[in-house]
Amino acid sequence: MTVGRRSLFFLGVMATCLLLVPATPGEFRWVNYAMAGLALFWAVAVGIEDVATRRDVAHRDAARGPDGR
Asked: Could you tell me if 49 and 3 are in contact, meaning their C-beta atoms sit under 8 angstroms apart?
């Protein structure tokens, strides 16, 4: 199983938000944490979608048979 590009993008956004926490003023750090949480949510949601789609396509292709019908 591989991780899709969209999941990796959102994981990268999450990492960027967390790396910016020390440079952010104390009163606004909650924004970094909130955006990191939102990015994590989307990474997981998109990852689940990718896994479900791959299973569905594999199942559909297996049901068609060798001639593609």
From this structure: no
pLDDT in tens, the chain (69 residues): 677 899 999 999 999 999 999 999 999 999 999 999 999 999 999 999 998 887 766 666 666 666 666
Distance in angstroms (rounded) separating the CA atoms of residues 36 and 19 = 10
Does the pTM exceed 0.90? no
Helix and strand numbers, DSSP H then E, in the chain: 2, 0
CA gap 13, 38 in Å, rounded: 10
Residue 49 amino acid letter: E
